[in-house]
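Memo to structure team: turn this sequence into structure tokens by end of day. - J.P.
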Amino acid sequence: MGVEIKDSSVSDAEFEDMKRFVLDYLSASVENEDDGGRMRWYPWHSAEYRFNHILNVVDLASHIAKREGADVDVVRVAALFHDISKLEAEQEVHAEEGARVAREFLTTHGDYPESFTEQVCQVVSDHSYQGDLMDISLETRCLIEADILDKIGANGTALMLLRMGYEARTHMDAAEMVERVFERGRDASQRLVTDTAESLAYQRLKRVKWFREWLEEEVPEMDHTENFDI
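Reply from structure team:
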């Protein structure tokens, strides 16, 4: 009888196990810090925020992968591990550290083909790439685009408004801060190359633009600026 080779697809149960591992790893990264965690006083640097960001990226990256014909299993697993080392490693090396953790997990918690593990780890390692997205694999492209998209739109706006409270700003600064979200999102979206990601970015930027306009309508004393285009 021949040895059965496990298909590279990841079951829902396996993916749930991976999710629990990632959350536990992030939580341990914070708890192990003597000073309470690197920048823990900013909520978006907490284990809870980082895990939520990861899940957002998983959903976005999986959606892009399905529409663009990428390997969805590789993309969603890489997305799940892409920021696992974000709270314990420096920004410059968190991608490589994330790939290391992903490799250790995949080689000890399942019977995944070596080619699948290698591809996942390569995508995780490359997700901080800052060059032209046409020069990298489609799977890595999907992950990077999803990572960019999670910072654009209503989610990015909510985080910026939350930051205002930590900086002791008043609500009268809200329009300025929302405009900053829009401008940064518009600049970041210039890197997107897939039709799916570009469409999502347009929808998200439009929501930020509307929110800024609603603020100006409801708060007469708020500073007005010229209309900004998507």
